[in-house]
Amino acid sequence: MTTMDDHYSPAYYYYVDPASLYQPQQPNPLDDLISVYGLQNISQQVARTNPDGTKAVKLRKSYKNQINDLSGKFSVIPTRENGKGGDIAPILFQNNPDMVPQVHKTADMTPEQWHQLMCDRDAGLFQPQNMDWDVCQAVLSQFERSHPAEFQANGFQADDLAFDLDGSGNTLKPRKRKNKSSGSSMATPNSDLQEDMKRRRLE
Amino acid sequence: MTTAVEMLQNNGLASPERHNSTVGNGLKSSEKLGNNIHTGTNKDMDNDSQHYGNSSVSKAPELPHVEVNQLPIALLIRNLTVFSVKELVQFLKTSVHEGQDTSVKKTSFLQLVIFLRNQFLKIYVLVKWCRTIKNNNFNTMIDLLNWFRGSNMAVNNCIWALKASLAGMLNAKLPNPDLVTALEVLSLGRPNLPTHSFSLSGEEESEKGPKGFSVPSKLILKKLRDMNIIMSVKVSLMELPDQFKQYTVRDGRLVIHVENEFEVQLSTTDQRSPLFFVDLKLLFNELLPLNKYKLEKVINEVLFKSPRPLFALYRLLHNYVLSVQMYILHAELLDLESNSKYSGGNLKHHYDSRKNGITLKYWLHSRLKGKCNAIIGVDKESGNITLKWNIEDLPEGNPLVPVRYSNVLNNLGNILDEIMFNHSQIIKSQLLSTEVLHEEEDISDALLFHVPSTPASVIPIQIKINPISGIFYAKNPSGLLTYYINQINKTTTTDDFVKVLNRLKLDKTISILKNMFEKVGWVCNNVIKLNAPISIESTGTQKMLSRDLYIRLQNWPANWYLILSVISSNASCALEKRIGKITASNGNWELKYLDTKNVATLKLESMTYQKVIHLKKTSLHSIIDHMIIDSLNGLHMRNKICAGDSLDAVPEYIFQDNSSNQTSVLSIELESFLGGPNALNNLLEKTMFLRIDYQENKIKLFGKFKHNSKMICNQYNEALMQFIDKDSLSFFMTETFIDLNNIVQHFNPFKQKLMQIVTLTDVIERLHNFYSENFSIVALKPNEISFKYLKHSNDEYDCLIHIQTTDHSVENLDVKLSPSNPQYIIQPFIESSKQDYKFVFNYLQFTSGFFGVVESILSTAGRNSSQASNGYSTLALQLHNLSEYELIYYNAEVNSKITLMIELRNVFLNGSQRLRYYVHFADDEHISSKSPAYPLVHRVRNTVFMVDNSSLVNSDTISSLGSPKKPKIASAIRLTDGICCDATDIELVIKEINSILRVNSI
């Protein structure tokens, strides 16, 4: 009978096994996890506002501003939207290991040897079996002197080259200053999209 | 891209900085950014973050680290670089071939370069962004985000699991625990009830012993007395309904007695408290178990809540009593339906507990089902249970039949008995009022119905109503009766009921009649079914029923029947006797002929075997009459049967030789009988009579001439017809018949004969007109007439007319002249020209004189020629056609010929056209003056053709002198070339010319 009772009614009233112990969740979500993990600094950097309520845009420099120090003249910012940016992700994350040359470390290798091997692993790209310099020369020699109108027919714009041909430097500089004076860098034509992309990256 | 950012934080191995200076810059900057160079494991990363964080961070619990899609920046840059080199090589390889447009190549090269540059630009920008982040603990942010996501997911999962377990627990329910009692039991060991160990009576004291709590009996009695007073005061202060006037107060209780309903006991605690329930008894049935616990609850609630508690209590209890009583009735009815004499579905009821009513149906198997019902319910006025009998057919203003019964309880069986008895009485009186049924004197509940057993007598049939089932039944019923009783039990109205009974009577009558006829030798045809009854009277009125019997005798003509229409009404039964012809065509029976005039109506009672046998004899005659009429109608002959009164109008001579009674007489219209020609209308009376003698199997056709046609009477052949007597104008023809069916065949000979008579009479009449002087009929046969018409005829007959007939008409008359007739010469012309016989007669008449004289001349010439064969001129007559003859005188010795032409011409004379002879010499014959014939011709011209001057001068003297040589020819017109005269004078003219020519030619 006792076994029967044991079988049908457990010793505890609620159907919770008293033997199993439950610990509170760690970390406690009620805590200020930003400070727990020492992320105040970075959160301040990406915060929309400063503690005094003014707008904070420290991390939010635009793409244009970032490339402003380059010697090119980017009249058009290459983005995915205008079709000139291209998609970089599949290039960066080469899932195919054969795409890039691989080297393997063997046990009897000295650190110097290994270092040398690592340094030279991509040298093969320029070896004749991969790169035929004669062909390069032949092809490049075919290219004669060009003028901008020549490319118009093929849908190429010389502006895309971003050459500072007239030496005026980046045309965006004065506009940037203007933006600064208004206290915001968001006024650029495509800054909204840029900002969204940035936010997504940060998240 | 999130991971890419992190990659930038972790500097990998230095990658070859070969192509892009921008990348190189990025790397440098990242080196500046990170103080240490990491080789990229994540554990190190976490440790680093701890290094950088302040002291609180070190205590922070470890977060699961995200490693997916995180690559060192060196590897990223290397990947991009390798890709760029390969792209360039690829482009160069594909562009090496000549023939392609260089500008296209250039463009695509530039595009490739720009694309690759843009990718490096992206890396550059990323590196620059990363530089702005201090402490390089960005990956912790990522881990934290990941942890938040995971936690959120876990909470969500818990919620879903809870919901699922809730759905799974639906069937597992526990009662609400009585926590209060449970606590009492837990603390006291028993429920803490207010009545615990509380006893009122002294009796229990002894049982309980000294431990029990006891109340002294004095105190109890005092309390009761007090209670009585309190109750009396309280009740007398309260409003009481009328029904509660009968109350007593005793034992501390108020006892209210309502007669026949209930007795309720109430009590109270003190003056101010409300009354409460003590006990209840139902007075009409004390054995009934009561749920007093529930009643107490309800009654106490009513007493407590109602502003007029006793009124409310009465209403409640009264309704309760009614419901209980109704239920008892329901139970009683159930018992009656299943166990009593009403079992078997004769009684049914429906108990509606909500409306507190019962609908009751009885006599469910009877013809009146649906009409027999009653309702038990609460009467609104009296408030009592009442049974109401819904009877539609109740005679108005009949107070003797009770419809409402108030004392229903315990009396239901008797009430039902009474209702059903009353109902059966009502039905009985309704049936009796139709006078079809009669009341039996001895047995009060039986109805009598008289059904004929023989034509003259009736037997009564007893029909009773079963008061339980409402079904009619008869004692020891025959098969037929059972069938009709069933029919009766299906009728719904009294009229239908009577109709069924009448049908029964009709059926019986017909079977009696059939039996009678069949016994005597008639044959009844049961197969024939006509669409409509024959008797016209029966169709008019609804109450009449009629059925037709088709009977015949074996030897009767086929399809002919004696049709007996039996017409039955409530009181009497009549028979109509007709003769008719019924044939089957296309699967239907059709009444082809019906004698509508001679309908004999008799009473059923008058039908006897003698009559039936007599009918056998008499009917046949009328059958044949009608058959002939039918046949005549079929031939479109107008006719009428002569019987009864019309028989008196028939001329007597028809019955002169009538030896037996077995005759029938029909009158026929002459014109329609002959079917067209109306020639006889002038000759015979319009009406002819047909007498059929069945005994001698003879048909006689009687006719009568209109007037005594000349010579007719005696001259008609015996074979053709017989005259009634010598002077009479009436005649008859006889035919013998063998088969009645084909009696019409015998009309044809009659018709033929009549046609012959027509023709004969017509011909003879005409002949008389033509040959008034010399005419005499020599012989008369049905087809032939022989007669004489010539002046000097020695022949047996001069002409014979043969009448050719077909069945219906005279086809032709053959005129045959006697061979010795001088006119025999024209016989072939008559035959060939097919002239009308009138013309022929006229012609013969007209030319008879001429041919007569020619005949005599020829005969004398013939005689003379035998004497003077030596050169006497011969004479010959030649016929050109019917209107031109030639008389040729020929002298063989001198070879001279004189041709005399005789023509028949129509000439105008005094304004009218007349037929005349024209006699002249042939034109084509030129007789020279030298010819011996010339003087003869000349002389003829002079004496006969030329107008005599003397006669012109004084014709009277000449005529008076009467020269023998020149006989007077009255109609002659002398035309110099010839002479014209009429038929009477042609003889003289020919004789005169002949005498000249003849004499001189000799």
Automatic annotation (TrEMBL), chain A:
It comes from Lachancea dasiensis. Pfam families: Rox3 (PF08633). Residues 167-203 are annotated as: Disordered. Keywords: Activator, Nucleus, Transcription, Transcription regulation. Component of the Mediator complex, a coactivator involved in the regulated transcription of nearly all RNA polymerase II-dependent genes. Mediator functions as a bridge to convey information from gene-specific regulatory proteins to the basal RNA polymerase II transcription machinery. Mediator is recruited to promoters by direct interactions with regulatory proteins and serves as a scaffold for the assembly of a functional preinitiation complex with RNA polymerase II and the general transcription factors. This is Mediator of RNA polymerase II transcription subunit 19. One of its GO terms (biological process) is negative regulation of transcription by RNA polymerase II. The keyword Phosphoprotein does not apply. Belongs to the Mediator complex subunit 19 family. InterPro entries: Mediator_Med19_fun (IPR013942). The gene is MED19. One of its GO terms (cellular component) is mediator complex.
UniProtKB/TrEMBL annotation, chain B:
GO terms for molecular function: RNA polymerase II-specific DNA-binding transcription factor binding; TFIIB-class transcription factor binding; transcription coregulator activity. It is found in: Nucleus. Signal peptide: none annotated. Its main location: nucleus. GO terms for cellular component: core mediator complex; mediator complex. One of its GO terms (biological process) is negative regulation of transcription by RNA polymerase II. Residues 71-270 form the Mediator complex subunit MED14 N-terminal domain. Residues 1-59 are annotated as: Disordered. Keywords: Activator, Nucleus, Transcription, Transcription regulation. InterPro entries: Med14_N (IPR055122), Mediator_Med14 (IPR013947). Residues 1-13, 21-40 have a biased composition (Polar residues). Component of the Mediator complex. Belongs to the Mediator complex subunit 14 family. PANTHER family: MEDIATOR COMPLEX SUBUNIT, MEDIATOR OF RNA POLYMERASE II TRANSCRIPTION SUBUNIT 14. Component of the Mediator complex, a coactivator involved in the regulated transcription of nearly all RNA polymerase II-dependent genes. Mediator functions as a bridge to convey information from gene-specific regulatory proteins to the basal RNA polymerase II transcription machinery. Mediator is recruited to promoters by direct interactions with regulatory proteins and serves as a scaffold for the assembly of a functional preinitiation complex with RNA polymerase II and the general transcription factors. This is Mediator of RNA polymerase II transcription subunit 14. It comes from Lachancea dasiensis.
